[in-house]
Amino acid sequence: MSTKNTDALSRLTNALKVLPNVGPKTAQRMAYELLQHKRAGAEELVAAIQAALLQVHHCRLCNTFCEGELCAICADKTRDAKRLMIVQMPVDVASMESANCHDGLYFVLMGQVNPTQGADLQAIALDKLVTRLQEYEVEEIIIATNFTAEGDATAYVLSQLLTDFPAKITRLARGMPLGGELEYVDAGTLAQAVYERRNIK
Ligand SMILES: [Zn+2]
Fold first, then answer.
1. How far is the CA of 8 from the centre of ligand 1 (A)?
2. What pLDDT sits at residue 34?
3. Ligand 1 centroid to 61 CA: how many Å?
4. Does 100 lie in the same domain as 192?
5. How far apart are CA 8 and CA 28, in angstroms?
6. What pLDDT score was predicted for residue 187?
7. How far is the CA of 63 from the centre of ligand 1 (A)?
8. Are 114 and 123 in contact (CB under 8 A)?
């Protein structure tokens, strides 16, 4: 094997380690699999990643991933723009939508505050949230972060930040299993948690 080939293989293995939960051994196994048995799949993977990098951006209003200026939910005029639900990730929007329990709009933080790592606020899109709330007045802000240590820390940061805004602030009821991440909670339990949300302010 020439040095050049070895370099390309190492480069691929290293690049694969960018994926979550992929260490050196898994990355090597993936690289071998792609090159040995999945060459067509690998071509599609390259094309799909390139297209996504070019086309996928953040929605101007809610910060979720979308391909236009606004996502389908923010562009939907039939939704109740006076109620804004704050969630951690796009998958949480999907969970809420399939539970059919929120007809307002969303804001997606794209992260969470980690209380054991100095609660770095850069991990969530707070500036964009503040701008959103300054531009469009809402009557109720529903904090729908996960029921985990990180979700609780994030909810705390949000409740502190949002006290100055003239809106009612609520959080999902704790009807969910402890350590519950919204994406793993069934639709019925999720809907219940939304209906029974409690006032923070
Ligand atoms: Zn949006």
1. 39
2. 97
3. 5
4. yes
5. 12
6. 87
7. 6
8. yes
Are residues 177 and 140 part of one domain? yes
Find the 126 Cα to ligand 1 centroid distance in Å. 16
Q: Quote the domain boundaries for residue 75.
A: 65-199
Residues 128, 66: Cα–Cα separation, whole Å = 16
Q: Is residue 112 part of a domain?
A: yes
Which parts of the chain have pLDDT scores under 70? 1-6, 118-119, 175-179
CA of 67 to the centre of ligand 1 (A): 10
Please count the residues of the chain. Answer: 201
Q: 29 C-alpha to center of ligand 1: Å?
A: 38
Question: What's the CATH number where 168 sits?
Answer: 3.40.1360.10
**Cα–ligand 1 centroid distance for 59 (angstroms):** 5
Examine the domain organization and report whether 94 and 173 are in the same domain: yes
Residue 109 lies in a domain: yes
Is there a domain that residue 60 lies in?
Answer: no
Judge if 153 and 103 occupy the same domain. Answer: yes
What distance in Å separates the CA atoms of residue 77 and residue 104, rounded to the nearest whole number?
10
Round to whole Å and give the CA distance between 105 and 73: 7
What is the Å distance from ligand 1's center to 172 Cα?
A: 21
Distance 155 CA to ligand 1 centre (A): 21
Q: What is the pLDDT of residue 181?
A: 84
* Residues paired with 168 in a beta bridge: 140
**What token pair was written down for 90?**
């796009």
Distance 73 CA to ligand 1 centre (A): 6
Quote the number of domains for the chain: 2
